[in-house]
Amino acid sequence: MTKSQLQAITDTSVDGIILSDAEGKVLFFSRASERIFGYSSDEIVGEDVRLLMPSPYSEAHSQYMANYRETGRHTIIGIGREVMGRRKSGEVFPMDLYIGEQEAGGEAGFVAVLRDLTERRQDEEQRRRLFEHSAAILAEQIHFVHAVSHDLREPLRMITSFCGRLQGDYRDRLDARGQEYLSLAVAAAERMGLILDDLVEFAQLSTEKEGASPFDSSVVLAQEVECFAEAIRRTGAVVTQGELPWVVANPIRFARVLQNLIGNALKYVGEGVSPRIHVEAAREGAFWRFSVSDNGIGIDPRHFGRIFEPFKRLHPRGRYDGTGLGLAICRKIVEGFGGTLSVRSSEGQGSTFSFTVAAEGEAAEDDRTKAP
Ligand code: ADP
Q: Which terminus of the chain has a smaller tally of CB atoms within 10 A, N or C?
């Protein structure tokens, strides 16, 4: 390598390069070193490298050099380590330091390659603060939702209770229209109770993987189907399933996802149509993709994005009841599994909701196995 090639390398390097002799006197100070420390090469060449170190590193360095001269043994050469440097302005800053031995003109000495970590540390600090800030906001939101829901339940209980009394004690004094209005008020109060339940559940769900354990998904499905026995009998629904695997997730939350998807599949069917629901799973890398298909009213693809948002419903209440939070809850749960939830459908053609869950025996925490 020619001298000018060497020069080009040291000039271009973003890491500072410093050569010193065995006594610690600076022999060479690269351009990046000038930028990092604020000294020009002319100012520093010939000076002691300790000028670039704050206490206690400069004292430690003197000690180190003395040991090295006496024993010829070095303890830090070649090892990358984080130390503090001192700029000309006096500012002390973190840097990564690598030290090697060099021999220039038969004289032993050292070569130091160093990287200024100031910006990286600032970025890390900013990220940490942002994280803390969002965690605090989240905690506040959860607290707020709890407090609001708690405060709303009391008047709601009063409404339900007084409506109940009206229905009982005043039944004879209400005409058919009055009774109908009262029934509507009771139904609305019940719906509000359900919304509050879902709201608290939604707010509380974190997207962390919590309480994950291996379980047989077909057992969970059987339990959920059992819970819907009455609706299945009433609507003449048929639920079929493919072979279902063992997976690793929070089983209660997994059950909740199936409950919402099967509940919707039973609910969103055309007049007089018996629901046909099929649940199956297919392997996708380190995940299983579960799908719940129905023969229901289907969804216009234009609305695919909206239906997963809280309180977004495509139908007027009355025809199909619901809180509008079911799919939002499902999505949050599935994201907590490290998976994704999506839908395929077209209007009048039924829908297929699918979600991914880590397969048993796979390291789902590993980024390489992020769900497709
Ligand atoms: P809801 O409590 O209203 O059922 P969801 O969040 O579960 O709330 O669903 C949001 C909307 O997505 C529903 O209001 C409905 O319009 C649509 N939807 C959900 N599941 C289905 C399905 N299987 N078939 C057709 N439409 C559906």
A: N
Query: What was the pLDDT predicted at 79?
Result: 61
The Cα–Cα gap between 133 and 136 comes to 5
pLDDT at position 365: 46
> How far apart are the CA of 236 and the centre of ligand 1, in A?
20
* Residue ending a domain, choose from 88, 116, 144: 116
> Sorting pLDDT into bands at 50, 70 and 90, what band is 316?
confident
Q: What is the CA radius of gyration of the chain?
A: 34
User: Which residues face 107 on adjacent strands?
Assistant: 104
Whether residue 177 is found in the same domain as residue 110: no
Instruction: Give the span between the Cα atoms of 154 and 156, in whole angstroms.
Output: 5
The residue segments making up the domain with residue 329 are 210-372
Pocket test for ligand 1, best of 327, 343, 351 (most atoms within 8 A of CB): 327
DSSP 325-370: -HHHHHHHHHHHTT--EEEEE-TTS-EEEEEEEEETTS-TTSGGG-
Say yes or no: 218 and 169 in one domain.
no
281 touches ligand 1 (CB under 6 Å): no
Phi and psi at residue 95, in whole multiples of 5°? -150, 155
Verify whether ligand 1 is closer than 6 Å to residue 268 (CB atom): yes
User: pLDDT tens, 52-96?
Assistant: 999 888 787 777 777 777 776 666 555 668 889 999 999 999 999
pLDDT at 368 over 60: no
**What's the number of domains the chain is made of?**
3
Per residue in 162-207, pLDDT tens?
Answer: 999 999 999 899 999 999 999 999 999 999 999 999 998 888 886 6
- Domain boundary pick from 171, 189, 208: 208
